[in-house]
């Protein structure tokens, strides 16, 4: 998987990881073994987003875990983040690649559609994200997907991310179907700060049991 390691992909949320708790919550996710982090904040001012992204970038660099910025290649470039996650409405992958360079990690939302995945691969995506697999309180309107798309997507030869309503109790079928990364907001952060590290460790144990190449580092 190159710079990407299989495992828990922790995604922040301005309601569940508010400013005062953001850094400690992500630090707990990293201590519990998260292998990828995404800074996702749809509401805060650009100054706040810049400060928070910088703080998370320092933290993630110290942990040796890539930080991706949701939606915003410019912010990723400004803070020196490892890359971006782009949805289908978030601007072109090629433009982000030009801005961030060949080593940046660029992930693309593919919903439940393999045609979008092939296009993303042709355009140089580093991972493909499918979802939502379960009801999501974070993004209830995201289009639904079936786990079989994860299996079908294996033939593209890129790391596969699953997202949407994932908790420790419903995650196993997604790894068994072919997910390399489980992208989680509520299932990681909605139990309060003290739960985050335990939950992250539980996801790690699930990967250790079911993912062919997962390496337990914590
Ligand atoms: C890992 C991952 N997968 C999917 C998404 C969703 O991206 P997008 O469709 O652009 O929606 P928003 O997150 O921008 O609301 C994601 N962020 N991360
Ligand atoms: C940001 C996002 N994108 C989705 C998609 O299906 O593309 S689902 C989703 C929300 C993920 O949060 P939670 O783990 O709380 O459901
Ligand atoms: Mg987006």
Description:
The chain is an alpha/beta fold and 218 residues long. The chain has a single domain, classed as Aldolase class I (TIM Barrel, Alpha-Beta Barrel), CATH 3.20.20.70. 41% of the residues lie in helices and 16% in strands. The chain is built from 9 helices and 8 strands. An 8-stranded parallel beta barrel has the order 1-2-3-4-5-6-7-8, surrounded by 5 helices. Helix 7 links the parallel strand 7 and strand 8. Helix 1 runs parallel beside helix 2, helix 1 runs parallel beside helix 9 and helix 2 packs across helix 3. The radius of gyration is 16 Å and the shape is globular. Bound molecules: the ligand Cc1ncc(COP(=O)(O)OP(=O)(O)O)c(N)n1, the ligand Cc1nc(C(=O)O)sc1CCOP(=O)(O)O and magnesium ion. The site of magnesium ion (MG) has 4 residues, from loops. The ligand Cc1nc(C(=O)O)sc1CCOP(=O)(O)O binds next to helix 8.
Order of helices and strands: EHEHEHEHEHEHEHEHH
Q: What integer value in Å does the Rg equal?
A: 16 Å
CATH superfamily: Aldolase class I
* N-C termini distance: 19 Å
* Main sheet properties: 8 strands, parallel, barrel
Short note summarizing the structure:
The protein is an alpha/beta fold. The chain has helices spanning 19-31, 46-63, 73-79, 93-100, 114-122, 148-153, 172-177, 186-189, 193-210; strands at 7-11, 36-39, 67-70, 83-86, 105-109, 127-131, 160-163, 181-184. The chain has a single domain, classed as Alpha-Beta Barrel (TIM Barrel).
Which key terms come to mind for this protein?
TIM Barrel, binds magnesium ion, binds ligand 3NM, 218 residues, 9 helices, binds the ligand Cc1ncc(COP(=O)(O)OP(=O)(O)O)c(N)n1, thiamine biosynthesis, eight-stranded parallel barrel
């Amino acid at each position: 998987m190159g710079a990407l390691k299989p495992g828990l992909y922790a995604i922040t949320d301005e309601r569940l990881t508010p400013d005062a708790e953001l850094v400690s919550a992500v630090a707990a996710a990293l201590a519990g073994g998260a292998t990828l982090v995404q800074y996702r904040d749809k509401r805060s001012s650009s100054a706040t987003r810049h400060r928070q992204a910088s703080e998370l970038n320092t933290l993630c660099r110290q942990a040796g875990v890539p930080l991706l910025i949701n939606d915003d290649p410019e912010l990723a470039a400004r803070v020196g983040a490892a890359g971006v996650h782009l949805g289908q409405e978030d601007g072109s992958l090629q433009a982000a690649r030009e801005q961030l360079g060949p080593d940046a990690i660029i992930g693309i939302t593919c919903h439940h559609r393999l045609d979008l995945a092939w296009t993303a691969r042709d355009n140089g995506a580093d991972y493909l994200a499918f979802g939502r697999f379960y009801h999501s309180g974070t993004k209830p309107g995201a289009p639904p997907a079936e786990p079989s798309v994860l299996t079908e997507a294996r033939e593209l030869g890129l790391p596969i991310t699953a997202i949407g309503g994932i908790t420790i109790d419903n995650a196993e079928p997604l790894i068994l179907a072919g997910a390399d990364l489980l992208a989680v907001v509520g299932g990681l952060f909605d139990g309060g700060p003290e739960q985050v590290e335990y939950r992250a460790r539980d996801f790690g144990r699930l990967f250790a049991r079911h993912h062919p190449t997962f390496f337990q580092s914590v």
